[in-house]
Structures are given as structure tokens and as C-alpha cells.
Amino acid sequence: MNPNAILELRLFYFRNHFAYQWKGSAAPVILTGHNGVGKTNILEAISFLAPGRGLRSAKLAEIDQWGEEEKWAIYALAKTPQGEVNIGTGRGENTGGDKRIIKVEGEVLKTASQLKNHIGILALTPLNDRVFVDGSTARRDLLDHLVAGFDNAHSKRISAYDTARSERLKLLSTYGGYDRVWATALEARMAGSAVAIAAARLEVIQRITDALESHIESPFPRPLLGLDGTVENDLTSLPALQAEEAYCARLEQSRQADRESGRTQEGPHRSDFLVIHSTKKMPAEMCSTGEQKSLLLSLILATARARASWQGSAPILLFDEIIAHLDEVRRAALAAEIKSLGAQVWMTGTEVESFRDFLPFSQHIEVSPPVSPVISREAMGRLERNRIETSE
Ligand SMILES: Nc1ncnc2c1ncn2[C@@H]1O[C@H](COP(=O)(O)OP(=O)(O)OP(=O)(O)O)[C@@H](O)[C@H]1O
Ligand SMILES: [Mg+2]
Questions:
Q1: What separation in Å is there between the alpha carbon of 271 and the centre of ligand 1?
Q2: Measured in angstroms, how far is the CA atom of residue 125 from the centroid of ligand 2?
Q3: Which architecture does CATH list for 127-312?
Q4: For the whole prediction, is pTM greater than 0.90?
Q5: pLDDT tens digit sequence for 291-326
Q6: Which sequence spans correspond to the domains of the chain?
Q7: Residue nearest to atom 17 of ligand 1 (CA)
Q8: Cβ–Cβ contacts within 10 Å for residue 112, how many?
Q9: CATH number of 1-120+316-392
Q10: What's the mean pLDDT in 177-200?
Q11: What is the average pLDDT value for the chain, to the nearest integer?
């Protein structure tokens, strides 16, 4: 097993970190420090080594250090199954708007999704706490996020499906009647993507379920996972081609209704990811707040195990403020699990004592309030020479 890990990290003008540097090993990393010192900001920076907008889904310009002209940048040396790679990302000098530049070994990546070919990262933060109660859209987004970790093409398929879906709705609402041949073509495009999306979701649910089932001793509650959606339900009894035809037929039948309501009634954009507390036989959204957190942690850990066995390499785990919510037994269990997974987990908390079970096999960073930007010219020059050059 060769887990993904960060070996070096440098942040520049990244929120409250003016010039932060860290160098370490592939072991887990415990970040402690007072409220507001910048622990979550460090995890957020690491999350930018994966596609997307990072842990907080922030606007990229918001991340620039308040009051500074410079744009933020981060640099990491990462250990990956392919060996060590240098990854840099930041708001480029010439990109102006809300776009970041990403370089791997000095080469600019065309799309952020290509980062998945280089490094695996999986995050769990307090922002995920409401995922079960926030309804089916939030749960489905969580599932799609997990699926994308296994399957690089998943996000692309979803956007292809969404594009065809909105083109079809636009076409159906054409004043004075629509072109039927074009509607059929768009429905065929939707169905092709829909079946691929549904199949990928079902496959990943199976992989995570296998990982959960091979791990019955855990003190964390075990979630039972399911998926309720037109195409997913068809796929459990029909071969892919027939499921595609069945969905095309449904779309054709619902043209009138979709035209009137202005929305597509059926499809993978409406599927519900079902998470059930296995011993209580209760949907996650009806469980207590603590039970929901444990179910989610259980789900994320099983996903990490499934990815480790599928990709031969555990993803880097970013666990922000997870430990504070766990009792002694669960802290010890989490430590044992992380140790056996061999993953580099980055965990934050205010008290180092909470991490007692982790410390023997982890690195500890006491995050102190960042130094003010008033540093020597010589030191700044040294940092600048190392800085990831994001301008094109
Ligand atoms: N763009 C920015 N520029 C400068 N500082 C910022 C920016 N965005 C956020 N901050 C500040 O960064 C500081 C650290 O935030 P962070 O969320 O990382 O703290 P933390 O160590 O995780 O604290 P807690 O223990 O409360 O979770 C906060 O004081 C916040 O106001
Ligand atoms: Mg924090």
C-alpha cells in the first residue's frame, strides 16, 4: 500500500497565512491551536490540490489575504502512487476572475478535474454535518462527490446530462411547437449519460457496502446504503441498453408534463441516496445529530477503505473538527482504523490531549498565529524564489 500524502506544503497570501511552510513525512498530521489561528485554512489549502472550490466552496478572490494586493498560491510536494509530484495552484496573475491555475511538475493542467489523476483527497468538515437533513439534493451531491473519487469521468457525465436536459426543456417550450426529431436526439443523449451516471453510482455504492461489511467490529454505526431513482431502479433488473431505451420512452411520454411544469420529472438528477442506520433501521435524517455525524464518518472511512483497495492507495483524509465530537471509545477506534488504513489524515482540534491515541504514530503541528507580513527582505526573497509561479 502506497498512500497519498503531502510531504511539503507552502501557502502564500492564503487567508490569514502570509507565508506558511511545512515539511514532514507521510504519517498523519495533527493540527492544534487556539480558535482562529488558521487550522481550517491549512486544510482548505490542501483541499485545493483536488478539483473544485475547496472545503468551503469559497469564491477564489475571497481567499486572497485581506488587505493584500497579491493573489494567493499554494505549493505542495505530494507522495502519490506514481511517485513524488510537485503541485502548485493559485489565482493566476492574468486570469483576473474566479479561475485558478494548476500546475503539476510545471505543466499547466487544462482542467482541474485532471488533478484526480495525480492525487486522492477526501474531506469531512462541520459543513457536511447537515448533509442528511438538507434533503435529497445534498445527499445526492455527496454520493456524486464520492463516486467522482473512484471515477474521473463522473462529473463530466453529470454535466453532459444536465446540458442535454436543459436543452431539451428549452426545446420543449418552443413557442408554436418543437422539433420532434431534435427532441428524440436530445433524449437519447440524456439517456446515454443517465445510464452511465446510474451505473457508476450503483457500482460505488456496492464497493462502499463491501468495505462496510468487511468491517463489522467497528464501534461506529454502520450505514445501509441504497439508491432510489428511475434509472437506477431499472438498472437493477435490466441490461444497460434496455434501461436506456426505457428511460428514452419515459422522457418521450413526459414531454407534455415536462413542458408544462418546466422541469424534467424523472431521471438521475432526482435520485435519492438512502442512508439508513443499520441497527436502528432508521433513515439517517431521522437520527440524532451525534448519530448522523458518526454515520457520516463511517461512510467516509468505508469510502477511504474502498478507494484504498480499488486504487491501491488510500486518499489523504482531511478531518476538520471531527475528534471533538467523539467519545473515548470512538477516538481510540478511529485511531486504530487510521493506523490500519495507513492514510495520511490531517485532523484539527484545539486540545492536543484529544489526540492521545493518534500521537504515537502522527506528526503534531501547533499552529501559532501567523507572523505579520513584516519579515526581512532577504527572507521574503528566499520565499519568493520558491513560490509557485502562477502567472502565465
Ligand atoms: N481572506 C482572508 N484574509 C485574512 N484572514 C482571513 C481570510 N479569511 C479568513 N481569515 C481569517 O483566518 C483566521 C483563521 O481561520 P480558520 O478558520 O483557519 O481558524 P481555525 O484555526 O480553524 O479556528 P477554529 O478553531 O475556530 O476552527 C480567522 O481569524 C479568519 O478571520
Ligand atoms: Mg477551524
A1: 36
A2: 9
A3: Up-down Bundle (1.20)
A4: yes
A5: 999 999 999 999 999 999 998 899 999 999 999 889
A6: 1-120+316-392, 127-312
A7: 40
A8: 18
A9: 3.40.50.300
A10: 97
A11: 92
